[in-house]
């Protein structure tokens, strides 16, 4: 028998993406002092597209710490943590994070994405349940799917609906399945906050576990930058604190903080931890320094500066995070608005499906402590002048 097995061409897939207004492409950028310049252009732009909330991605003392880490511990770890890649720099960072998060223990992963992919499948099996906020980040959706547990979704920040789901699981399946509730503290594309106190109450009542992804809360919220959980005084009542070192901490890497038993389980079971080479020890050393900056007086001053910038951009509102969505709806219109702002000297990304729900394409403005007031006020007036 003869099979004519030509590979189904990708041209059609690409055309479909273009036609839907969902085309994405890579650009290269040079960064300097809060400004950004496309490699192919000589126009320098104010960067309102980064998650560099405290400006630490270009902090001099953090750079010096990275260099010191290189001298002391080197750049390549050579193997996964469990084989021979574990350095004192990794341990020290994990102790610093656990201390900051007021949990017994913590574990470092190469990225926040890898944290999600590692932990949910490690904690749950197919007889368990994972209950997701509707607007949760892609990595947590993928991880929930990978776990094989039954997935339930509650409307964004809707605790009464979440309670109904929890009650029905317990009514039907009794007390034996694990239930993991997953939310973000600061939602990445809307900048709003999860009702943590109510979530904690619900999870305690129904004996569920609660995972809070503080990707956009860590470093930004709380008296010492510990995140929304710290700001609400709920650190010890949340089972799993997830975070990333790639946003306010200005570096790269992801972490989970929890009790020692959970961390031991993850060391034994989380596949994205076990089967992945340890992050560069120098990076871990620098990250300990980033945690120290976040907790320090300097971190406090940067948060005050950021809060002042948030006030300036959003005059009088109660907005608590550095992320502002400007919802436009249509994909092309959002792209046009973004390129118009670019002509005015601002880099503000258009965010489209599937990053946000269909027909809610938007500009996503993220503020940093390092943005000067003039840039913020000027961006604000440019956005107000956009065609409606
Ligand atoms: C960025 C982000 C992640 C992934 O973190 P990385 O360290 O960039 O991989 C996870 N969750 C949320 C909500 C994020 O915004």
Can you walk through the features of this model?
The protein is of the alpha/beta class. The protein folds into 2 domains: 25-53 and 322-384, Aspartate Aminotransferase, domain 1; 60-295, Aspartate Aminotransferase, domain 2, CATH 3.40.640. The chain has helices at 11-19, 60-73, 81-85, 88-101, 112-123, 138-147, 159-173, 196-205, 228-231, 260-269, 271-274, 281-295, 297-313, 331-343, 373-384, and strands spanning 29-32, 35-38, 44-47, 105-109, 129-133, 150-154, 179-184, 209-213, 240-244, 254-258, 323-329, 346-347, 350-351, 361-366. The chain has a 7-stranded mixed beta sheet with strand order 4-10-9-8-7-5-6, with helices on both faces. It has a 4-stranded mixed beta sheet with strand order 1-2-3-12. The protein has a 3-stranded antiparallel beta sheet with strand order 11-14-13. The longest helix is centred in the C-terminal third of the chain and has 17 residues, at 297-313. The chain is globular, with a radius of gyration of 22 Å. The chain starts with 10 loop residues before the first helix and ends with a helix. The mean pLDDT is 95. The chain binds pyridoxal-5'-phosphate. Pyridoxal-5'-phosphate binds at residues 111-113, 137, 139, 184, 188, 213, 215-216, 244, 246, 254.
- Count of the separate structural domains: 2
Count of helix runs:
15
- Trace the largest sheet across and list its strands: 4-10-9-8-7-5-6
H/E series, N to C? HEEEHHHEHEHEHEHEHEEHHHHEHEEEH
- Average pLDDT value? 95
Low-confidence stretches: none
The CATH homologous superfamily of the largest domain: Type I PLP-dependent aspartate aminotransferase-like (Major domain)
CATH domain fold name of the largest domain: Aspartate Aminotransferase, domain 2
Name of the top-level CATH class of the largest domain: Alpha Beta
- As a percent range, the share of helical residues equals 40-55%
Using the 3D structure, state the CATH architecture of the largest domain: 3-Layer(aba) Sandwich
Q: Ligands in the structure?
A: pyridoxal-5'-phosphate
Number of strands: 14
Shape by Cα distribution: globular
Q: Which structural class do the helices and strands define?
A: alpha/beta
Distance separating the two termini: 62 Å
> Strand-residue fraction?
15-25%
How would a crystallographer describe the biggest sheet? 7 strands, mixed
Instruction: Report the radius of gyration as a whole number of Å.
Output: 22 Å
């Amino acid at each position: 028998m003869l099979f004519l097995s030509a590979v189904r061409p990708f041209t059609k897939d690409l055309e479909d993406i273009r036609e839907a207004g969902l085309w994405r492409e890579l650009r290269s950028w040079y960064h300097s002092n809060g400004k950004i310049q496309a490699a192919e252009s000589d126009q320098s732009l104010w960067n309102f597209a980064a998650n560099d909330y405290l400006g630490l991605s270009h902090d001099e003392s953090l750079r010096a710490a990275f260099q010191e880490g290189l001298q002391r511990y080197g750049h390549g770890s050579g193997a996964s943590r469990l084989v021979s890649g574990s350095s004192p720099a990794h341990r020290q960072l994990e102790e610093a994070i656990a201390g900051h998060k007021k949990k017994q223990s913590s574990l470092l992963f190469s990225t926040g994405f890898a944290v999600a992919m590692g932990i949910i499948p490690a904690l749950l099996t197919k007889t368990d349940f994972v209950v997701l906020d509707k607007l949760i980040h892609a990595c947590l959706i993928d991880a929930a799917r990978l776990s094989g547990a039954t997935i339930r979704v509650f409307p964004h920040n809707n605790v009464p609906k979440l309670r109904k789901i929890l009650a029905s699981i317990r009514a039907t399946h009794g007390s034996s399945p694990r239930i993991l509730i997953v939310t973000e503290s600061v939602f990445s594309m809307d900048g709003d906050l999860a009702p943590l106190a109510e979530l904690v109450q619900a999870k305690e009542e129904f004996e569920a576990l609660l995972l809070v992804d503080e990707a956009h809360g860590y470093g930004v919220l709380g008296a010492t930058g510990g995140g929304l959980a710290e700001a609400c005084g709920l650190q010890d009542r949340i089972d799993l604190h997830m975070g990333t070192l790639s946003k306010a901490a200005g570096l790269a890497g992801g972490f989970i903080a929890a009790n020692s038993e959970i961390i031991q389980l993850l060391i034994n079971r989380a596949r994205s931890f076990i089967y992945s080479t340890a992050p560069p020890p120098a990076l871990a050393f620098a990250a300990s320094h980033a945690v120290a900056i976040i907790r320090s007086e300097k971190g406090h001053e940067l948060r005050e500066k950021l809060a002042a910038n948030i006030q300036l951009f959003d005059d009088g509102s109660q907005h608590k995070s550095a992320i502002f969505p400007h919802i436009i709806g249509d994909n092309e219109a959002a792209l046009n608005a973004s390129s118009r702002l670019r002509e005015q000297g601002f880099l503000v990304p258009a965010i489209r499906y599937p990053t946000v729900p269909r027909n809610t394409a938007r500009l996503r403005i993220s503020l940093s402590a390092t943005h000067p007031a003039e840039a913020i006020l000027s961006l604000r007036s440019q956005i107000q002048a956009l065609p409606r």
